[in-house]
């Protein structure tokens, strides 16, 4: 016993010192590098989330999967929600929260339905169309001025979407491909509303309303289509809720640590994860049109981000000149 205690103490000291060293090294990293790390973690978790949804959707209805997912996420978030009461429920924009809840419910329903029925890579790539819908909605709703470069990138991006959807193909327009595009449009509207709401409400308030209200909207449909999950499905549902929560938290950490223009392009690593998961677990290889459409969509999106970065620097330069 005399020999064991000093050794255990040495181990504890060594472990503690190693943790402190790693902690200091992590803090010393540039913010953008930390943001990239969290973005890569988030995209991996989002790809795993989609795979879990696809596996569960083989027998369970999409609204049941959605409701249980939201319930688990609400339970995980409960400590933060309750510790923030009553502030976590106070809002200065109830109508915007209502619109956001409805749109988020539509985005999840359409998006999860597409994930279940389409090849994983296809549904993932079509989700990238959100970037172009945000451009269109920003013009209409936020009165943003868009130049020829962004218009060109938006049009080219939609060409990439059409290549994947193939509305004039032999089988005609796939309803689930259309759902994936509609999900992207709804998600873009949600993002614009969140941009507005975040100016007047706390982040915990935004999280609370989405976690609870989307689940309540889906609950009647969940009850109607209820199928009692087996043990394996219960484990997958629990994993889905935990992974979804972890993915969102990782995404928030990424955006907090790094600049949005630096972090955003790494969202496209989802297509890599989705392709690998699709091949290994579902035995489905993406078609060549998916690769072509993905290349066009990603290129157009990256060009849009580049133009926004250049535009932002031009706007900031006159201000800096005035200050100096």
List keywords for this structure.
disordered C terminus, 13 helices, globular, 324 residues
Provide an overview of this structure:
The protein is mainly alpha-helical. Helix content is 80%, strand content 0%. It is built from 13 helices and no strands. The chain has helices at 4-28, 31-56, 62-83, 94-117, 120-127, 130-141, 148-165, 175-197, 203-224, 231-257, 260-263, 270-282, 288-323. Helix 3 packs across helix 10 (231-257) and helix 5 (120-127) packs parallel to helix 13 (288-323). The longest helix has 36 residues, at 288-323.
SSE order and pairing:
Blueprint: H1 4-28, H2 31-56, H3 62-83, H4 94-117, H5 120-127, H6 130-141, H7 148-165, H8 175-197, H9 203-224, H10 231-257, H11 260-263, H12 270-282, H13 288-323
Structural class: mainly alpha
Kindly state the mean pLDDT as a whole number?
Answer: 80
Number of strands: 0
Q: List unreliable stretches of 5+ residues.
A: 318-324
Order of helices and strands: HHHHHHHHHHHHH
Radius of gyration: 22 Å
How large is the count of helical segments? 13
Measured by DSSP, the beta-strand proportion falls in under 5%
State the separation between the terminal residues, measured CA to CA.
69 Å
How does the major sheet shape up?
A: none
Percentage of residues assigned to helices? over 70%
The shape is globular
Task: Give a quick precis of the structure.
The chain is mainly alpha-helical. Helix content is 80%, strand content 0%. It has helices at residues 4-28, 31-56, 62-83, 94-117, 120-127, 130-141, 148-165, 175-197, 203-224, 231-257, 260-263, 270-282, 288-323.
